[in-house]
Design goal:
By secondary structure, this protein is an alpha/beta fold. The protein folds into 2 domains: 139 residues, D-Maltodextrin-Binding Protein, domain 2 (3-Layer(aba) Sandwich); 86 residues, 3-Layer(aba) Sandwich (D-Maltodextrin-Binding Protein, domain 2). 35% of the residues lie in helices and 19% in strands. It is built from 10 helices and 13 strands. The chain has a 5-stranded mixed beta sheet with strand order 10-9-11-8-12, with helices on both faces. The relative contact order is 0.17. Bound molecules: glutamic acid. The site of glutamic acid has 12 residues, from helix 6 and strand 11.
């Protein structure tokens, strides 16, 4: 069972509040200093530089109940993350989503004949993905979603379209934690219902696990000294570190394989295979690489080769 922390005693709460204020001040001063020296702000995806995906008009997928409903509605409802820099991030001012996962969602929509500009993006946390697909709240899900056999009992997976690996994020001045073996007795934060949470629980039981709905809450807790490390996929952690390079760093080597898939309703094999085809086509025609370079590539990691699609048989 995921364990959520107990309410904090007043003294700790006050200390937390003070630290938050101090941190806010440091960030403000740092921002002011940057401005003075004229250094550019941290680069995020620029809407003008994102690829355009041609809508595959005339495409039909009548074997897929999910596609038929979406077509009638005129757009897909897609589940994503909103707090993962370079992957799936929502601009609080405009409400617009950006990132590599968002681009993957868009190219798939276009290949399946529905205008990507009309996608209704819905933020769904890691623990709620399977339910959202099962109850029809979303048509497909693109949000750092690891393909594995347990989840395949509940949902279907197209892809993979990217290969990540579990890693660790710590404060920049942390010297003791270099890998998962150093986590004994340390407070480690991850998201409820995620594979990184489960791996720490099973393989590193001496770590003191703390769970929240999202990794951004974990990162807040790391910055305010409530936890000692945040663990999830390297692709996610690199984004947080890039946004606060003076405060945070990713340490050690990835210690798992996290192949990212597109979640679909379990029985809609027609949709799953059509998304496999769409991914393959977009990898071949250069859209995948363009999308990567305009989003995740901004974190400084050059585009890898996409992993081979695993078109597993319907069961
Ligand atoms: N890829 C891992 C998972 O699917 C961690 C990232 C996430 O929670 O989305 O559980």
């Amino acid at each position: 069972m995921p364990h959520t922390p107990h309410p904090r005693p007043a003294a700790r709460r006050i200390r937390g509040a003070l630290l938050r204020t101090a941190l806010a001040l440091v960030l403000l001063l740092a921002a002011a200093a940057c401005g003075k020296e004229g250094s550019p702000p941290v680069k995020g995806p620029e809407p003008g530089k994102l690829p355009q995906y041609a809508v595959n008009t005339g495409f039909e997928l009548n074997d897929s109940p999910t596609w038929r409903k979406a077509r009638k509605r005129g757009h897909f409802n897609v589940g994503v993350k909103e707090d993962q820099p370079y992957l799936g991030e929502k601009d609080p001012a405009t409400g617009l989503y950006s990132g590599f996962d968002i681009e993957i969602a868009r190219m798939v929509s276009a290949s399946l004949g529905l205008d990507p500009a009309r996608i209704d993006f819905r933020t769904i946390a890691s623990a709620n993905r399977e339910t959202a697909l099962q109850n029809g709240q979303i048509d497909y899900y693109v949000g750092t979603y690891t393909i594995n056999d347990n989840r395949k009992k509940l949902v279907g997976f197209a892809g993979p379209y990217y290969l990540a690996g579990q890693s660790l994020l710590v404060r920049a001045d942390e010297d003791d934690i270099k890998g998962p073996r150093d986590l004994d007795g340390k407070r480690v934060c991850s998201a409820t219902g995620s594979t990184p949470y489960q791996r720490i629980q099973q393989d590193y039981p001496k770590a003191e696990l703390v769970a929240y709905d999202t990794y951004s809450i974990c990162v807040d807790n790391l910055l305010t000294y409530q936890v000692d490390a945040v663990t999830t996929d390297d692709a996610i952690l690199i984004g947080y570190a890039a946004k606060a390079p003076d405060e945070l760093k990713v340490v050690g080597k990835p210690f798992s394989e996290e192949p990212y898939g597109i979640g679909v309703p379990r029985d809609d094999n027609a949709l799953r295979f059509a998304i496999d085809d769409a991914l393959e086509a977009n990898e071949k025609n250069g859209n995948w690489k363009k999308a990567y370079d305009a989003t995740l590539g901004l974190s400084g990691v050059p585009a890898p080769e996409p992993p081979p699609i695993d078109r597993y048989p319907a069961s």
